Amino acid sequence: MKPKNILLTGPPRCGKSTLIEKLIQQIDKPLTGFFTREMRLKGRRVGFSINTLDGKEGILAHEENKGRFRVGKYGVNMDDLDQIAVPSMVASRRDEIVVIDEIGKMECCSPLFRETLMKILDSPNQVIGSIAQKGSPFIDTIKERKDVLLVPASEKNRDSLSASLLAAIRE
Description:
The protein is α/β, with parallel strands linked by helices. It has helices spanning about 15-25, 80-90, 110-120, 135-145, 160-170; strands at about 5-10, 30-40, 45-50, 55-60, 70, 75, 95-105, 125-130, 150. A hairpin with a 4-residue loop joins strand 3 and strand 4 (about 55-60).
């Protein structure tokens, strides 16, 4: 079986999200999904935002969030994760590509995210995204799927991956 889902993995800040953004700018198919972005205050990272491809924004996690779910110093905002990120993952057409940046510890705090992710991976829709290099058994299960092409990314190879990944997406 040829993998239909392409997931980049690698150390934090190696350029996975930037590479995904470059790829989706060159794709002429409908897209849906989300990116996460660092939130900074006076040069210091204080959290992460959710930014959907259709322009919705929310907070994924913040150091001031006192929620029940925590990853490091960050409290995960389950409401925005479930009400903004998760709906953006649901394709409205069979030819729509789903962008999920990223499948990580924070996102996997949500049972709804995990359930929706599995449905999307099993669907006819192609997924392009990033996945944590290290993580939970759930993350390991995603990486081991036969329909997932797991692509190691690094600062050294990120620029050279673009052409081959674009070809894999278009096939």
